[in-house]
Specification:
Helix content is about 10%, strand content about 45%. The chain is mainly β and about 180 residues long. The protein has a single domain, classed as Sandwich (Immunoglobulin-like), CATH 2.60.40.2360. Strands 2, 4, 5, 6, 8, 12 and 13 form a 7-stranded mixed beta sheet that branches. The longest helix is centred in the N-terminal third of the chain and has 18 residues. It starts with a helix and ends with a strand.
């Protein structure tokens, strides 16, 4: 094969390789997590009647740099997540109530999500202040009483804007049981 054919073949290979290269879109650097915990701090979806339930929501920064973020809300949405509990009767959901009172106002609440620690909302159904941890904002507990035996679902959503990244929309729908 002469030199001109080798050069032409090399150019064709480079052109084909260049056309088939896939563009890698990086994953979002923020991960949202939600779990229910029992009184000893273990993740579970099964609770004893009378036992308090811990609702834990985390925003974790998986990058090595701090990230600026904003709660996105309108006048009809809370500034940060409110965990609503529903009674599940054969698939028909009836609102029992929220874990805490929502703060609703039209405001972009700027925060920094550190690369070294997550943003956390950890609240309990019965309003146990010792188990509560909130790294942004504050809450007011309601006078909730223990949930009776049955099937339940906790639902909430959270729209989060970032200064340098795409919006992230968290939506959770977690079934649990009281026995």
């Amino acid at each position: 094969m002469d030199t001109s054919k080798r050069i032409l073949l090399a150019l064709v290979i480079l052109a084909v390789a260049g056309c088939s290269k896939k563009e890698v879109i990086p994953e979002h650097p923020v991960e949202v997590q939600f779990q229910l915990l029992n009184a000893t701090g273990e993740p579970t979806t099964s609770f004893r009647e009378g036992e308090d339930i811990v609702f834990e929501y985390r925003m974790v920064n998986r990058s090595s740099e701090d990230i600026v973020w904003y709660d996105q809300n309108e006048m009809d949405k809370p500034v940060y997540p409110v965990f609503n509990v529903y009674k599940d009767i054969s698939g028909d959901l009836t609102l029992v109530g929220p874990t805490h009172a929502p703060y609703i106002f039209d405001f972009k609440w700027g925060n920094t999500l550190l690369s070294t620690s997550p943003a956390v909302i950890r609240v309990t159904w019965l309003g146990n202040a010792e188990e509560t941890k909130i790294t942004w904002g504050s809450i007011k507990y309601l006078d909730n009483s223990s949930l009776p035996k049955g099937k339940y679902v906790v639902k909430f959503e959270h729209a989060i804007q970032f200064a340098k990244f795409d919006q992230l929309y968290a939506h959770f729908n977690v079934p649990f049981e009281i026995h």
